[in-house]
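Researcher: Let's do a round of design. I'm pasting the structure tokens now; please hold your answer until I've finished.
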């Protein structure tokens, strides 16, 4: 179809409209999970968790610099990158839909409306929209690559006997390879493209000029991974995996073997060795449960707000079945319009659904299989974002199906004016927008940054704060590195202490010449400026640190921590992370206050809970016999409330004068159910504090005020006001 003229201008209009929607519902700051990590590493040219995502980091840095003159906050700039890349995907999916419909519908204005319908439904699918309003992951870049490759594949098909067609095919190949340095999701069109070429124009593979151009492009695209060892040698403040290489040859081998050999640190990063993912043959859950998990996420996409339940087959089911039918209708329209294009998009559909479910090999869904009580057998959060390309694609297929049905209905009614009479059916296009707005919008949500601020402000100057995972670590990195909040606090995430690189980084970054000072603007009537510690958090050498492993104590282990003898009995097993954490506490306690982000995690694993004193949402290690000789101002809560010790005046000051609660208190809906532990922690803190205030003899109006705050936090901990309104 050499005469086909792509409607680039119409596609741009649709993409700009979608970008406006995303901007209107954009997060004004950072968000939960990996958003803080990617925003921070993108802005600072750091290295995020393996595989390091060098293309994303470079794009985010350039994008952030380009938007800097607008005066936008860093988080808004990087969040706009997610919005922009999803809008780019919308543009290309619009073109794909238009090209498909051009073989099925004659009226050009109907082609444009039909393609726009699919583009809008794909762009407003719940997960797509939600991932486009905060840069939580790198997947919007990969979805843009998938959409662009799909469009280039169709351009090659239409022009496969011309030089322009060859250029389109080569560009599609290069984008996939380059996109792989962002995330391997970018190569998902490869099976579809290979099938397409073999069916529609295999002779191109016999042409020397194709391979002479293709091989250098592949080599060039993959070479972007060399960013990792180059940047790692510059020791950025966030340097996860530390993929430093001793030789260029080792780095090249690691890059071009995709982590199969070569430089060990880089190879481990590229292959994501630290996550120890089992092979696909070792299923982490039965196939039936894994496919049910995918269907659950598919069920969310088209009318998430129609039912508050996470489970499938609830109030959303009529909408889900409608979109299943429209998507299948789209494939039927495609089959009738052009069998070759059907081959490409059909294989792509299979890859983005069945192929991904098999490859990803998830555990039981976070909110599924309640009969499996072992939480370790479940995913730690909802994983719908892994299927974002699938939902984007299916929305476009549904649009093609809707346009095909519109055309068929109009023809049945006699054509002509009937096309306009049947147009109300196109209102289906806006079902996802209407039902997903509240669930996908992040406008005005400051919960994550306020949580990070509150946690950091719970810690005294130059404190060491041990954290447990993503949500009590990455937001703190963002607050420290981007917003300059309490950079003096040393954040130590327990899970990274099991690696070889992280403990060394913590030690080196807290040496006296690198220790960042306490900023007096954060005194806030609670703290005072003091001299920085004269030694690092850890005194262990590289050799000693690297030799630490898990072991069962063959004899009692006695340590004197800040003047108090602590004994661990023989026969106790201490793994690498616990031993390094204990060593850091032992080395630091005389000079640095030690804190824990939870009173239930590491502090209990180390048997130190008897010396824990609550400072708001954090717990301070106070090495004295509190039962016999509590310090002035310390009050113990009741047994019913956990019997924890509290610094009553410090806590009252923190919760009244220091803490911020935007998006945590008085929330209409808390979209991410897997992070409800955050508002629950605030709720329980206020409940306990009210208990302690009563024991301490505080005025009853103060006790009532604290209890009232607990009630307000309880609403958010339930999921927000909408969950109270539900019948």
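Researcher: That's everything. Go ahead.
Model: Designed sequence:
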């Amino acid at each position: 179809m050499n005469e086909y003229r792509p409607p680039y201008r119409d596609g741009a209009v649709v993409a700009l409209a979608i970008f406006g929607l995303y901007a209107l519902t954009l997060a004004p700051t950072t968000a939960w999970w990996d958003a803080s990590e990617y925003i921070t590493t993108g802005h600072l040219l750091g290295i995020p968790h393996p595989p390091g995502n060098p293309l994303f980091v470079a794009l985010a840095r350039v994008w952030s610099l380009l938007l800097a003159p607008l005066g936008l906050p860093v988080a808004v700039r990087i969040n706009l990158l997610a919005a922009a890349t999803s809008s780019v995907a919308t543009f290309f999916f619009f073109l794909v839909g238009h090209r498909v419909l051009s073989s099925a519908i004659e009226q050009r204005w109907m082609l444009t409306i039909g393609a726009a319908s699919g583009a809008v439904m794909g762009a407003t699918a719940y997960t797509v929209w939600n991932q486009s309003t905060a840069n939580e992951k790198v997947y919007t870049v990969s979805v843009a690559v998938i959409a662009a490759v799909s469009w280039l594949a169709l351009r090659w098909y239409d022009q496969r006997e011309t030089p322009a067609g060859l250029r389109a095919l080569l560009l599609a190949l290069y984008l996939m390879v380059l996109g792989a340095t962002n995330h391997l999701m970018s190569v998902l069109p490869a099976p579809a493209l290979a099938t397409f070429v073999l069916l529609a124009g295999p002779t191109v593979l016999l042409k020397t000029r194709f391979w002479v151009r293709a091989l250098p492009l592949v080599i060039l695209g993959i070479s972007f991974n060399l960013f990792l060892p180059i940047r790692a040698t510059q020791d950025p403040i966030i340097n996860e995996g530390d993929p430093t290489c001793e030789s260029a040859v080792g780095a090249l081998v690691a890059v071009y073997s995709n982590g199969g050999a070569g430089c060990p640190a880089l190879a481990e990063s590229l292959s994501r060795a630290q996550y120890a993912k089992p092979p696909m043959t070792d299923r982490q859950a039965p196939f039936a449960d894994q496919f049910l998990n995918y269907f659950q996420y598919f069920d969310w996409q088209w009318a998430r707000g129609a039912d508050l339940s996470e489970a499938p087959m609830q109030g959303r089911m009529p909408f889900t079945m409608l979109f299943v039918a429209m998507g299948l209708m789209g494939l039927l329209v495609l089959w009738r319009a052009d069998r070759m294009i059907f081959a490409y998009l059909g294989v792509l559909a299979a890859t983005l659904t069945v192929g991904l479910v098999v490859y990803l090999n998830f555990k039981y869904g976070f909110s599924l299989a309640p009969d499996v009580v072992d939480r370790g057998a479940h995913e730690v959060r909802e994983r719908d974002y892994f299927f974002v390309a699938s939902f984007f694609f299916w929305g476009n297929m549904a649009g093609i199906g809707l346009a095909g049905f519109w055309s068929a209905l109009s023809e049945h009614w006699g054509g002509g004016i009937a096309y306009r009479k049947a147009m109300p059916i196109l209102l289906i296009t806006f079902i996802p927008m209407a039902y997903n707005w509240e669930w996908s919008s992040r406008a005005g949500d400051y919960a994550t940054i306020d949580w990070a601020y509150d946690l950091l402000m719970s810690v005294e100057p130059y404190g060491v704060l041990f954290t447990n995972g993503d949500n009590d670590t990455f937001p703190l990195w963002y607050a420290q590195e981007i917003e300059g909040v309490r950079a003096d606090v040393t954040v130590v995430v327990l899970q990274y202490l099991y690696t070889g690189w992280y403990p060394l980084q913590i030690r080196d970054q807290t040496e006296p010449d690198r220790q960042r000072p306490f900023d007096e603007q954060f005194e806030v009537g609670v703290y005072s400026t003091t001299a920085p510690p004269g030694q690092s958090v850890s005194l262990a050498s590289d050799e000693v640190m690297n030799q630490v492993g898990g072991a069962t104590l063959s004899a009692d282990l006695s340590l004197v921590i800040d003047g108090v003898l602590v004994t661990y009995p023989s026969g106790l097993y201490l793994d690498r992370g616990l031993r390094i954490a204990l060593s850091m506490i032992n080395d630091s306690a005389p000079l640095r206050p030690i804190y824990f982000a939870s009173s239930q995690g590491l502090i209990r694993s180390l048997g130190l809970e008897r010396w824990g004193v609550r400072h708001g949402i954090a717990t301070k290690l106070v090495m004295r016999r509190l039962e016999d000789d509590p310090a002035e101002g310390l009050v113990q809560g009741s047994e019913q409330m956990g019997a924890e010790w509290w610094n009553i005046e410090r806590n009252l000051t923190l919760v009244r004068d220091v803490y911020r609660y935007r998006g945590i208190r008085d929330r209409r809906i808390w979209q991410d159910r897997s992070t409800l532990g955050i508002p629950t922690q605030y709720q329980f803190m206020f409940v306990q504090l009210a208990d302690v205030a009563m024991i301490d003899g505080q005025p009853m109006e103060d006790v009532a005020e604290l209890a009232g705050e607990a009630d307000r936090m309880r609403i958010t901990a339930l999921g927000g006001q909408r969950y109270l309104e539900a019948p």
